[in-house]
Amino acid sequence: MLAKKCLNLYFNMMEDLSPFLENIKRKISLSPDNTELLTSAFRVVKVKRKQMIIQPGFVAKYRIYVLKGAFHSYVIDDKGNQHTIQFAIDDWWLSDYNSYVHQTPATQFVEALENSTVLQIDYQTEQQLKDANWELATLFRLMAEHSAAYLARRIVSNLTQSAEERYNDFVGRYPKVVQRLPQYALASYLNMTREFLSKIRNDKVRKK
Amino acid sequence: MLAKKCLNLYFNMMEDLSPFLENIKRKISLSPDNTELLTSAFRVVKVKRKQMIIQPGFVAKYRIYVLKGAFHSYVIDDKGNQHTIQFAIDDWWLSDYNSYVHQTPATQFVEALENSTVLQIDYQTEQQLKDANWELATLFRLMAEHSAAYLARRIVSNLTQSAEERYNDFVGRYPKVVQRLPQYALASYLNMTREFLSKIRNDKVRKK
DNA sequence: CGTTTTTCTTAAGATAGTTCATCGTTCTGC
DNA sequence: GCAGAACGATGAACTATCTTAAGAAAAACG
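Output (C-alpha cells, whole complex):
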C-alpha cells in the first residue's frame, strides 16, 4: 500500500496538478495532509484519441478528472444512433455516474476525442478515503450535490428550450468547449441531428 | 434548542414515521442515537392541495420527504407554458435542488397535487447535522449520489426515446404514480403536450 | 347535490426537426 | 505529403409532435 502510494506520487510528479488542486479548492479547503492523501489516491493516465475508458457491460471502475484533453460519453440506442450524454475537457469531471455510484454495468461509452491526460481514482480507493476521512468525505458529498444540481438544470433546459435556444445557450455558456468538439457530438448532446445543428449555425451566419 | 427538539418530537409522534425510517435504512444503517437525532431534525407539516411550498425568487429553505400525498415541481417558460420537472408521492424526496444546494433563489414552483403530509428539514439544520455527525453526513452524501445517478438516467431516457417510449417506460416503472397524477403534469414531465399524450394513450387502447 | 372549474379527448392544420442522399472539406495515420 | 476516413453543408421529402379550438367528462366545492 505504501509502495503503491509512493509509486503514484512518483507518476503524479511528472504532471502539473495545480489545475486539479484549484478545482478542489473551489469546493473545499483541505488541510495539507488531506491534499496529499487525496492526490496520491489518483493516478495519472494517458489516453489516446478514440480510446474507450468505459464501455457498456463493464462496471465503471474510475472517477475521472481531465487534466488535459477532451472526452464525450454516449449511448447507442436501438436504432444504432449515438447520443452524447456528457462532455469533459480540461478541468472537468467525468464518469458513467450511474454505473460508478451503484457499481453496476455501464450503459455508456466514454471515449477520448483527443489524446488526453487524466487523473483517475478507483471506486474502492474512493470509498476508503470517504470512510477514513471527514474532509474528503465532505469533498465527495459536495461533488455529488453539485452534479445533481447541474443535471437538474440540464433537464430544465431540455424541457423548456427549443433546439436553437439550447444551442445558443450552450455556446454562451461554454464557448471554449464548442470549439473543441465535433459537431455531431454537440448536436446529439443538445438532442438534435447533426444536420439540424448545421442548419441553425448557417441561419445565424446569414442573418448577420 | 432543546425545546425545539422536544416540540418536534412531540409533533412527529402524531405521525407514523416508519416509512421514512425504512427509506433511510435502505440507504444506510444508522445507530439508534443518530436515528433519533435525524428524526428530531425534521418537522411534520401538513400541506393543502394547490399550496406552493417553494416559489421562484425565494430560496428553497427545505428538503422535503413526502409521508403521504403528491407533489409536482414545475417551471413556467417564456411563453407561459408549464413544465413539470419532478414528481413526488408517498416516500419520495423533493426540493428545488439547485436552489437548495446552492442556496440561491429558486426557479421552480413546488405545488401539492393533493392534501399532503410531509417531513421537512431546513438547510441550516441539515448543514449542522452533516458537520457534526459522520453517519448523517454519509447519509446525505448517498442521497446526493443517488439523485445524480437518477437524473443522469432520466437525461439518457430523454435523449434516446420517442414520446411513446418515454410514456411506456414511465408507466412500466411507476404504475402507481401514474394513477395519482393529472395527465397534463405527466405529459409535460415526459416532454410532450397533454393532447399528444392523450393520443398515445388512445392509440394504445385501439390496438388491443 | 348542482354548478363552476378543471381536466381530458378529438381532429385538422401547422411546424420544428428528421431522414436520406450527395458533395466538398478537413483531418489523420502512416 | 498522400490515401482514406471522418466530418460538415445542403436541399428535398417526410413525420413526429405541436397548436388551436371546441365539446365531453370529471372533479371540486360551496
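The longest helix of chain A spans residues 134-160.
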